[in-house]
Amino acid sequence: MKYKLLGNTGLKVSELCLGTMTFGGRGMWTAIGTLPQNEVNELVKQSVDAGINFIDTANVYSEGLSEIMTGKAIRELGLKRDDLVIATKVRGVMGEGPNNSGLSRKHILQQADESLSRLNMDYIDLYQIHGFDPLTPFEETLDALDTLVKSGKVRYIGCSNLAAWQIMKALGISAQQHLAKFVSLQAYYTIAGRDLEREVAPLLFDQKLGLMVWSPLAGGFLSGKYSRNAATEEGRRVNFDFPPVNKEKAFDIIDVMQDIAQHKGVTVAQIALAWLLHQQVVTSVIIGAKKPEQLQDNLKAVDVKLSVDELAQLDEVSKLNPEYPGWMILRQGADRKV
Known about the structure:
globular, single chain, two-stranded antiparallel ribbon, TIM Barrel, 11 helices, 338 residues, alpha/beta
């Protein structure tokens, strides 16, 4: 396991991060997973034993139950809290009242306390906004997050699922008003969904933000269970067909991954994860599992090395179609390349 700095900080996180969406199972989250505490403990132990020090959850996962089970697993396994980097999120609906969602100061401060209570911890390492709130000014959101950092309840702040302009606007406000800045983005990025590369990835490089990748197997579509000529009645996609994927293009990509996987004696899922680990913009890839065997397969991706030729094959079959202004920027910048 390798460890990378999270953005422009001195905090080291493992290149794989344990995701906790499969923990518990309440409401809509039953489609993702319904793991009981003993199985949660097993997955957490397996991850930490493999070198993972980074665990990501959210207040909305299983309506708070995921946070409870994550904290309980750490205590029951006797893990040292300070050896771990715990990330959680705020934004989603956490009750029926009009102020029980969003990124208002009231909701953020309340939810930070409730997350700490569920986790049974004194502080959160990385507190992330889970998305954009069109009703709350960024100034209010960032000031509330800054309050949490100054209070010691939160060490670093991050964002998730934002557009490039939104991230840049937030960073500008933080700089202007001397508030804590986002150090990372959590976003969807896979070899079958490379949209991030158009606007967001260049921003991350320029502003030195870390990238945590969610759903690196495209909701299981790149797990090896799916191919053009074989249907499956297993997996998350059967009941929860998300995130959106151009399936015909994805099947072309899977064909190439299958050839490379067969040549290396590894799985298609490991190739998909290894491709992400080879991308310079990626800090940590979030992996989740329902079974120890599935987690073990994903953990092995850190040992898969892709050659220059293999990376070129994968890039060719998965690359984005040129879009304006990207193609014009490349054309005009040709004489000024470093």
